[in-house]
Amino acid sequence: MKEVDRIHFGSPLEESRQGEVLDMQAPEEHIKEERRKLYIESYGCQMNFSDSEIVASILMDQGFETIGDYKEADVVFVNTCSIRENAEQRVRNRLKEFEAAKQRKPGMIIGVLGCMAERLKARFLEEEKLVDLVVGPDAYRDLPNLIQQVDDGSRAVNVLLSREETYADISPVRLNSNGVSAFISIMRGCDNMCSFCVVPFTRGRERSRDPESIVKEAQDLYNAGYREVTLLGQNVDSYKFKCNEGTRTVNFAQLLEKVALVHPDLRVRFSTSHPKDITNEVLYAIAKYENICKYIHLPVQSGNSRVLELMNRTYDREWYLERVDAIRRIIPDCGISTDIITGFCSETVEEHEDTLSIMDHVKYDFAYMFAYSERPGTLAAKRYEDDVPEEEKKRRLTEVVNKQREHSLYRLENFVGKVHKVLIEGFSKRSDEDYCGRNDQNTMMVFPVDERFKVGQYVNVLAETCTSATLIGRIVD
Q1: By the 8 A CB rule, do 22 and 66 touch?
Q2: At which positions is [4Fe-4S] cluster 1 bound (predicted)?
Q3: Has 115 been labeled as part of a binding site?
Q4: What is the distance between the alpha carbons of residues 106 and 108, in angstroms, rounded to a whole number?
């Protein structure tokens, strides 16, 4: 992972990656002569990034190899995000660049995958005619057939949502990987109908993946040299899989334990938790195992109970604070991050102040923050007027960002002078003379290279100082 500013806009399952190119070559044993070349560019969340790895695996079995230059590709895919309007505009602009490349390379296939594909299929195919192929997040197995349709001269589309598809049997091709950290998708879809969110409409109903397939993927990753996995789901705490014809159910706490037991040297992270579902059983599992990272992303969205009700978050301010208090009690050293929306429909200045006050109470390690952006088709768009002026939304967002900067620095300063167990993830983006890696609480640390230790190893790092976003230290015995 790269060093990043810990004051974020967007959320880890919404806007963590903007235009990431997936360009790692397929494993050598699969390379054949005259393979068609595939280029994938991912926008949005970690789930999209994980899906792109599934797509690469499916097409690798069909004779494709991934490359890093779209101008040389035979097939160009954009894996898209519909969370915010500006993300959609960026994708449109990018498609126009791909269309220009297609003029220079006739026969190039351009396709849109993911959430925007499901929501804007007609516009892409018929109105703007920017693409040849549109595929929703549950239809990736159909890609070989759809590509063949385009090869035969037709436009192709499959955006059908599924109640069963989890891609559990597909081993993802690890793209743009540092060889140390990897994502494992444990479930798909979402049953929470948050009024501001398009995910239930673009990714379908919630379904959990067989725990044994998850454990096997984690074991395979460890055997391949990976030392950290992140379990992904829109709401991991609602993970539930019925085993043995329904006679036994595995919940998220039990899944966490199963993955932690793969090996003590395999770090386990997860994203994202929902305040209504995170249980003490999960918290005790985190506390029990050293290799389950002491870090929880717990989106609050708003600190005001009336606004939370309008958002259909199904918890209130008091419930959220009780969950935070439980985390602090059971896992005293746990890092907590969050998502915050400013200027939601009818939010008053006083209700915005409740968000600032809940930030003061929790003092988040970092946050993903953005002004409310109405998304077509959501419950909020149908029911409520987007009546907070844009200028006021931005003013409130500025207040939230400034407060979070203070809290992030406060948390970082509390880490200074302490020794942290860090997994070396690679070299610092600023210098090959420094390593970088994260501590248990997901805070990035930068420290001088020590020839005794290599990428993928754990080291003890004394934090000696900090910037506004990063701890700086040195390896100690």
Answers
A1: yes
A2: 45, 81, 115
A3: yes
A4: 6
Q: Indicate the angle between helix axes 349-362 and 317-330, nearest 10 degrees.
A: 10
User: Taking the complete model, does pTM exceed 0.90, yes or no?
Assistant: no
What is the rounded CA–CA span in Å between residue 67 and residue 38?
6
Q: Rounded distance, CA 301 to CA 368, Å?
A: 10
Query: Strand pairing of 17-22 and 444-448?
Result: unpaired
- What DSSP string describes 41-84? EEEE-HHHHHHHHHHHHHHHTTTEEE-S-GGG-SEEEEEE--SS
For 349, how many CA atoms within 13 A lie in the half-sphere containing its CB? Answer: 2
* Residues 86-114 pLDDT 10s: 667 788 889 889 989 998 998 999 999 98
Location of structure tokens 């960002």: 401
- Residue-wise pLDDT for 269-307, tens only, equals 999 999 999 999 999 999 999 999 999 999 999 999 999
Q: Is 190 annotated as a binding residue?
A: yes
The answer on whether 197 is annotated among ligand-binding residues is yes
Q: Give the phi and the psi of residue 184 in degrees, each rounded to 5.
A: -130, 115
Q: Tell me: pLDDT of 247 over 80.
A: no
Angle between helices 280-288 and 252-260 (to 10 degrees): 10
Give dist(CA 152, CA 129) in Å, integer.
Answer: 17
Read off the pLDDT of residues 124-177 as tens digits, 9 standing for 90 and up: 776 567 889 999 999 999 999 999 999 999 989 998 888 899 999 898 888 877
Taking only the tens place, the pLDDT of each residue in 27-67 is 444 444 568 999 999 887 788 889 999 999 999 999 999 99
- How many Cα atoms within 13 Å fall on the side-chain side of residue 264? 2
How far apart, in whole angstroms, are the C-alpha atoms of residue 202 and residue 432?
Answer: 41
Can you give the C-alpha Rg of the chain in angstroms? 22
Report whether the peptide linkage leading into residue 202 is cis, meaning its omega lies within 30 degrees of zero. no
If DSSP states are collapsed to H, E and C, what string results for 437-468?
EECCCCCEEEEECCCCCCCCCEEEEEEEEECC
Average pLDDT, the chain: 89
Q: Which two tokens stand for residue 448?
A: 């001088």
Spacing of C-alpha 116 from chain mean position? 16
Positive or negative torsion for Cα 100, 114, 278, 245? negative
Calculate mean pLDDT across residues 342-362.
Answer: 98
DSSP state of 429: S
186-217 confidence digits (pLDDT tens): 999 999 999 999 888 888 899 999 999 999 99
CA atoms within a 13 Å half-sphere pointing along the CA-CB vector of 341: 26
